[in-house]
């Protein structure tokens, strides 16, 4: 089916700016208070140094007045200073990575200067001597951070999207310039997002099967931990073949306030509320308008209807006891678009509309001083409508999950964890579909489907971390999953190890068996439910040098052996578990941070991925076999208020299956394409340069931030896809509409 869709014009550019501005504002608003010009009489000044008990300066410590947004972050000398109009008895809250929080009662008087030096101690919580693991990029509560929310917002071209920022790391590639990720030659469906223990299967707007761009609905500023594993992940993660993005949301917010943002095509309002350290809530609501954006960038794409998207979400957190915490997370998103498309047999509008709701309730507490027990219940429904020519269907995907995890140490050298989960997936489709993929006209032969499929999965795992010394970590685990639809059970043993060869150098490796149930759509296309879970065996070996996250070098090799992949049976053209494949390659990552001015990284990946699946008769390049990919990213703080950034991406063109000829079908008066071998040709090399800048200032004596993005600086015409004329005698290049794009906007504290 050939669709030359232009939806990516909107998704790649309009929402990019909207999310960038909003998320950048969220970070700056909650972590940094701009020293505003005073309009009231003599605000108080609070300043001092944050140090360890040994007198060493602590950089990056957050010092705030509890329950407010007044505060500052300590510099490379441990110094902080901020102004405030708050007076009276107050509590100063100081937090820093790897240190316990400290609260100090003070009395603030109008116009006075309060000098407050703060000493922090290392946290009393048990931490692993080794926090490096194979194929993992982590942010949050460990010192070896490789990806932070600020880096996500400031990565040019990523546009504050967590998933797009990850694609600047080795082994990960964007799908059609959108937010969906293909990892190490695998399919995008092999990447699973976990949010507070819940599976988040549709975290995108404008996500469909027609190579359109998508954008994430996940707000990285709401995450206290971001762990992306591109392979070799532990046994607690199940039903996924290639990669896991594990997200942990913040607990109770420390501040309260409102902030708004207005851009060239968007308007958003967000808020944070905190009360007494026991209750907190957040919300975000936004919509957009595209006409000013389209006009400024000279985009004359034929839309009907014009692209529309809106979202609303938030969190509620309540501290039930000293260790008990109840968190509720919910998000709703909507998108709708109609865009002119041309195929060999139909010229008209492709229309797509989706509604997505997700919610998760999680309760956790510590049964003992060193153990942790958590239970989460989640539910989501994803409704999608689409139409193009004779194609007209509505589908619903329903997911619900109950999960419990327990962890505790056993002595000084062992940590033990176990868990149990039940997940329900339901799929329903009702509509009209073309009988022939090459004949899409409204009068083309069609078939009506009204099908329901559902599956239950019972999963359990047990794993242990063994630390025989401060230089060696071994993680061993096993999980079991049972699928009710196919009545299949699988057992997945997994093992990973890290050895520290010097203070900052590590050798790491991992291996294991991984299974994933095929999408329920595949069960619709067969006459049996006995389709096996797809399988991949991972082998990973690598080296890492990490000096306090300022200098990081990673070199990692991998090999994946696939079996029981979904494929078409050549005898009856029904889906069956007869596919296989391999993926091998090398990832290289180099990151340098020169405080406080420069931060940047270079990533390179070599991939050789081959598969025999679906319509491939023999082993051939996988759909996302990107042989070479290189990303160069850098940001520089010109002043304390102005930051600029640039990025460059270049990669081998993705594989595609060319049409070599055609046969005339007199019954339907159309031509039938004749294809070459599966993925026997490639698109031209892809490359692009992006720039951005952010500036913080005061407006009406309020904190403000301005943002400017210039995407595709050199106006490179990258190929989006190939189309054909009516008899397939002429191949037509369809270039990406994502040419040189300008976007700007501003956010303001309310």
Low-confidence stretches: 1-41, 124-129, 140-144
- Mean pLDDT across residues: 85
CATH architecture of the largest domain: Beta Barrel
Q: How far is it from the N-terminal to the C-terminal residue, by CA?
A: 50 Å
What is the C-level CATH assignment of the largest domain? Mainly Beta
Binned, the helix content reads: under 10%
**Total strand count, please?**
46
Number of helices: 5
In CATH, the topology of the largest domain is named Maltoporin, Chain A
Strand content: over 45%
How many separate domains make up the residues? 2
Can you tell me about this structure?
The protein has 750 residues and is mainly β. The chain folds into 2 domains: 7-30 and 133-749, Maltoporin, Chain A (Beta Barrel); 31-120, Immunoglobulin-like (Sandwich). 6% of the residues lie in helices and 57% in strands. The chain contains 5 helices and 46 strands. The strands form 9 sheets. It has a 22-stranded antiparallel β-barrel. Strands 9-16-17-12-13 form a 5-stranded mixed β-sheet, with no helix packed on it. Strands 1, 4, 7 and 8 form a 4-stranded mixed β-sheet that branches. The longest helix is centred in the first third of the chain and has 25 residues, at 7-31. The radius of gyration is 26 Å and the shape is globular. The two termini are 50 Å apart. The model is unreliable at 1-41, 124-129 and 140-144 (pLDDT under 50).
């Amino acid at each position: 089916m050939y669709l030359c869709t232009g939806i990516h014009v909107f998704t790649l550019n309009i929402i990019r700016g909207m999310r960038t501005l909003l998320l950048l504002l969220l970070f700056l608003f909650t972590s940094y208070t701009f020293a505003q010009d005073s309009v009231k009489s003599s605000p108080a000044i609070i300043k001092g140094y944050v140090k360890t008990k040994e007198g060493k300066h602590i950089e990056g410590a957050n010092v705030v007045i509890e329950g407010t947004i007044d505060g500052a972050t300590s510099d490379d000398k441990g110094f902080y200073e901020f102004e405030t109009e708050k007076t009276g008895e107050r509590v100063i809250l100081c937090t820093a990575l790897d240190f316990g929080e400290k609260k100090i009662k003070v009395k603030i008087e109008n116009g006075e200067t309060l000098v407050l030096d703060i000493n922090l101690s290392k946290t009393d919580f048990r931490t692993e001597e080794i926090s490096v693991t194979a194929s993992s990029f982590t942010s949050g509560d460990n010192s070896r951070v490789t990806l932070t929310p600020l880096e996500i917002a400031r990565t040019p071209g990523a546009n504050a999207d967590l998933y797009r920022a990850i694609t600047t790391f080795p082994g990960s590639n964007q799908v059609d310039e959108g937010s969906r990720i293909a990892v190490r030659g695998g399919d995008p469906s092999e990447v699973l997002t976990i949010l507070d223990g819940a599976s988040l299967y549709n975290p995108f707007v404008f996500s469909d099967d027609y190579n359109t761009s998508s954008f994430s609905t996940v707000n990285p500023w709401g995450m206290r931990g971001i762990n992306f594993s591109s392979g070799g992940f532990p046994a607690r993660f199940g039903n996924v073949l290639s990669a896991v993005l594990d997200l942990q949301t913040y607990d109770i917010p420390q501040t309260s306030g409102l902030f708004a943002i207005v851009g060239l095509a968007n308007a958003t309002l967000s808020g944070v509320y905190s009360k007494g350290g026991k209750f907190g809530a957040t919300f975000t609501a936004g919509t957009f308008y595209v006409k000013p954006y389209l006009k400024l960038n000279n985009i004359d794409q034929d839309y009907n209807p014009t692209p529309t998207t809106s979202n609303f979400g938030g969190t509620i957190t309540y501290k039930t006891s000293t260790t008990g915490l109840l968190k509720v997370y919910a998000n709703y998103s909507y998108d709708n678009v109609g865009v002119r498309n041309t195929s060999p047999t139909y010229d008209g509008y492709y229309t797509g509309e989706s509604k997505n709701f997700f919610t998760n309730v999680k309760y956790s507490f510590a049964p003992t001083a060193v153990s942790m027990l958590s239970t989460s219940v989640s539910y989501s429904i994803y409704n999608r409508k689409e139409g193009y020519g004779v194609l007209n269907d509505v589908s619903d995907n329903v997911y619900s999950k109950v999960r419990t995890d327990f962890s505790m140490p056993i002595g000084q050298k062992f940590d033990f964890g176990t868990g149990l989960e039940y997940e329900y997936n339901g799929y329903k489709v009702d509509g009209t579909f073309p009988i022939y993929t090459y004949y899409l006209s409204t009068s083309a032969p069609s078939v009506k489907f009204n099908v329901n499929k559902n599956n239950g999965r019972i999963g359990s795992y047990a794993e242990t971390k063994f630390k025989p010394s401060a230089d060696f970590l071994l993680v061993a685990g096993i999980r079991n999953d049972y699928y009710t639809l196919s009545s299949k059970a699988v057992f997945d043993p997994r093992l990973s190890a890290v050895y520290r060869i010097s203070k900052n150098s590590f050798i790491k490796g991992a291996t294991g068996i991984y299974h994933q149930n095929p999408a329920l759509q595949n069960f619709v296309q067969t006459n049996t439910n006995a389709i096996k879970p797809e399988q991949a065996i991972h082998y990973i070996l690598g080296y890492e040098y990490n000096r306090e996250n300022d200098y990081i070098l990673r070199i990692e090799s991998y090999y994946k052996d696939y079996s029981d992949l979904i494929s078409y049976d050549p005898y009856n053209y029904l889906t069956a578990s007869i596919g296989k494949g391999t993926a091998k390659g090398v990832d290289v990552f180099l990151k340098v941070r020169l405080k406080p001015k420069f931060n940047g990284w270079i990533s390179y990946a070599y991939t050789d991925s081959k598969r025999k699946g679906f319509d491939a008769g023999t082993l051939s390049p996988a759909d996302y076999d990107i042989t070479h990919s290189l990303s160069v990213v850098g940001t520089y703080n010109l002043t304390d208020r102005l930051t600029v950034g640039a990025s460059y991406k270049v990669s081998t063109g993705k594989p595609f299956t060319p049409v070599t000829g055609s046969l005339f079908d007199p019954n339907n008066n159309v031509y039938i394409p004749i294809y070459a071998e599966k993925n026997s040709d490639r698109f031209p090399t892809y490359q692009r340069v992006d720039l951005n800048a952010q500036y913080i200032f005061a407006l009406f004596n309020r904190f403000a931030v301005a943002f400017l993005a210039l995407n595709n600086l050199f106006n490179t015409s990258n190929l989006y896809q190939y189309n054909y004329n009516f008899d397939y005698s002429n191949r037509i290049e369809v270039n990406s509409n994502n040419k040189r794009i300008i976007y700007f906007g501003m956010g303001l504290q309310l």
